[in-house]
Write a structure and sequence with these properties.
alpha+beta; 5-stranded antiparallel β-sheet; two-stranded antiparallel ribbon; elongated
Length: 136
């Protein structure tokens, strides 16, 4: 399990001062980028130093409680499914002990030049396995 801490800023919210729905995806993507960096695969490293990339091919999100300007939230990231060419991340968003949202993203490994699916690189599969969810 990987955790990412953030604070809701004014630009994250709508006119009512509640998180704008699309910004929940922005926040989980920030957590995803930090997790990739922990793996040693920043986007800069991937784009300049590998022949593959990890686009998101599916994203879903549930909003379970209002999140307001100034709220501090913790995003927990777990790896869900690990397949031959794809994997998923599962996110929980909490304000204190209150679950305020959940999300899921599905990523596929593609060759940067051909844009065709390729098997997950062995080192990436190994890194993902460390954060594999054990509960369902």
């Amino acid at each position: 399990m990987f955790t990412y801490n953030t604070k809701i800023r004014l630009h994250d919210t709508d006119a009512a001062g509640i998180i704008f729905f699309a910004n929940q995806f922005k926040i989980i993507h920030d957590a995803y980028e930090d997790l990739l960096e922990k793996f040693g695969w920043s986007f800069q490293t991937m784009l300049k130093g590998t022949d593959y990339f990890l686009p998101i091919v599916h994203a879903e999100s549930d909003y379970l409680a209002p999140v307001l300007v100034g709220d501090k939230i913790v995003i927990t990231v777990k790896v869900g499914h690990i397949g031959t060419t794809s994997f998923s991340f599962e996110y929980t968003l909490k304000r204190g002990k209150t679950l305020v949202g959940t999300a899921k993203t599905v990523h596929v490994t593609i060759n940067q030049k051909t844009r065709k699916k390729i098997p997950l690189p062995t080192a990436l599969r190994s890194a993902l396995s460390k954060y594999k969810s054990t509960t369902r």
